Amino acid sequence: MSRDRGPEQPFEDVVEGLRREGLMEPPPSVGETDEVSEGTGRVTLSFAPADRSVRVPPGVSVFDAASWNGIAIDSTCGGHGTCRKCLVRLTDAVSPVTRHDRRTFTDEQLGEGWRLACLVRATHDLAVEVPPLVTRPKASTVGVGRQVILRPAVQKRYVELTEPTLADQRTDLARLRDAVDDLTLVPDLHALRRLPKVLRESDFKVTAVVVDEVLVDVEPGDTTGRRHAIAYDLGTTTVVATLLDLETGTPVAVASILNKQQPFGGDVITRISATMMDPEALPRLTSLARDTLAELAAEVCEEGGVDPAEVYEVALAGNATMTALLLGVDPEPLGVAPFIQVTADWPVLLASDLGLAVHPGARAVVFPALGAYVGGDIVAGMLASGLDRDKRVRLFVDVGTNCEIALTDGDRIVTTAARPGRPSRAAPSAAGCGPPTAPSR
Ligand code: FES
Fold first, then answer.
1. Domain spanning 154-220, CATH architecture
2. Which CATH architecture has domain 228-418?
3. Nearest 5°: phi and psi at 217?
4. 92 pairs with which residues across the strands?
5. Ligand 1: which atom is nearest the Cα of residue 73?
């Protein structure tokens, strides 16, 4: 990472440097385009095939209007007019052609209404056709299995308790603790609130749910066969969720979607830059990351036929920037030398802190990072592949939006990271055939 701000370099210089590198170039002003008449009130943008209409103030870019309303348009520059990926077609009105449009589309495509969404100002009502995006991004959903000892933090114990009498006035919790003799039960408030009612409604035949040493719930009857967890790979471009059956250690369902932060840019530097330029960007990025995780949780639970309330643990592995953004931590120190993380070890959180609608006592474990550019995803990969225990020379490579390598000689592990070239994802070129398709470049 070469964007060394240095202690005495003014912030404006940093921004100028980023602009020179094409990371923060603003869209051209209205004056650079053909004349645009500013409207008053609000204008309506109709998006197809999403079949959504949104009303926005005049002058807002089509890209921003779509992003604010959860309609994904491809981008790796975050709407700064540099990536030329935000291809849309205006189907019922013309819009001025910018010099960037001319460099992107043929005359014929311009005549058909193709424009770059971040450069189209909504000065009047528009119908906007958004080509099929990579809403189902390619992601590995299967891997090479490895035998491991299954030792989940989530434990369940079914017990049948004796009912209290005047001669036996032990508390409900003491009664449960006495019956579960192989685990220490430290109850959370949720469990204590449920305990009296669940005990009496189920004839004192209950299942204690324990995560690490915390009693997070008491469930009626015997539910020992049902305990689940979700493992997330929080990528810059793609996020993958795997629902795991903790009884067997096997995946029940796997799903992946684009990281909803994508409109802020395709790489970590662009997203860090967004937080440096706009104080509203960090909470927005945090919220979008959480929305991404929540959507995936709902999807894998539905696909696996699992009640989300039976997901008692969540594990998250991502690069240091994605992790910071998810947790609402200012990522700026990760983007400038000497590239410092706020911590290498995150505390264990509640999944509900991240807005996940799973069991209210579910834990969220965030993988630690080794450095600003060797994140928790690499740590998880090294652990999963056994690299840390292998006595042979081994190389571990993670090729993603950011690229990391770990090398071991059996005694020690060295790691490094680099930014690969710009993503070369190309849209299909069969314009006019079947559903709306973006022109390719
Ligand atoms: S050029 Fe429009 S989002 Fe990148």
1. Roll (3.10)
2. 2-Layer Sandwich (3.30)
3. -165, 160
4. none
5. 3
* Ligand 1 atom, smallest distance to 83 CA: 4
Across residues 348-372, what is the average pLDDT?
94
Type of residue at 419: R
Query: Ligand 1: which residue has its CA nearest to atom 4?
Result: 83
Question: pLDDT tens-digit profile of 103-133?
Answer: 899 999 999 999 999 899 988 899 999 987 6
User: Mutation test of ligand 1: which of 85, 87, 105, 262 has the most ligand atoms closer than 8 Å to its C-beta?
Assistant: 85
Nearest CA to ligand 1 atom 3: 79
Using the atom order of ligand 1, give the atom closest to the CA of residue 117: 2
Taking the C-alpha atoms of residue 100 and residue 153, their distance in angstroms, rounded to an integer, is: 54
User: Do 11-129 and 154-220 have matching folds?
Assistant: yes
pLDDT in tens, 219-236: 999 999 999 999 999 998
- Annotated domain spans of the chain: 11-129, 154-220, 228-418
The architecture in CATH of the region 11-129 reads: Roll (3.10)
378, 370 Cβ separation under 8 angstroms:
yes
Choose which residue among 25, 61, 63, 271 to substitute to test ligand 1 binding: the one with the highest number of ligand atoms within 8 A of its C-beta.
Answer: 63
Beta bridge partners of 318: 234
- Contact between residue 246 and residue 152 where contact means Cβ atoms under 8 Å apart: yes
Residue reference for tokens 């639970």:
301
**Tens digits of per-residue pLDDT, 153-207?**
999 999 999 999 999 999 999 999 999 988 889 999 999 999 999 999 999 999 9
